[in-house]
Amino acid sequence: MAIDTVLLAVGPMDTVRAEGLADTVLEIAEPLDASVVIGHAFTEDEYEEFREDLGFEERVENVDPDDVAARRPPVGDLEEIFAEADVEYEVRGALGEVSSEVVDMAIDVGADRLVLGGRRRSPAEKAVLGSVSQDIILQAPCPVTYFRDLDVME
What is the pTM of this model? Predict the structure, then answer.
């Protein structure tokens, strides 16, 4: 199976591991001349919480998720890295329940590989709080590369 499109699903907590995520994506995308979609899904509550910091006056129902994603960390850092590596990329945003939005995004862009980072949590924390990464891995329409930064505790 050819890999033409890699979806890198990120969230605001991925800022600390942006370089590692980018390196992982470049290991796949560069030799295969694949394009990268930087995807950032967020909930209505997250949008409302950061709306003013992002420079938006619009309420959530009037905003373009792609515009919001382009202004959320770590997207700008990732754009710089992919541009320097001369890898074709685009930014996509999604509004809603994060795990299902990421899976839908993977389907919409025709992702051949999905890369995502995750938190280091105990099994008890996952059982009580759930795991967005686990939900994405279980529902993804393509193979998933899971990046776990062992130095980061969230």
Answer: 0.89
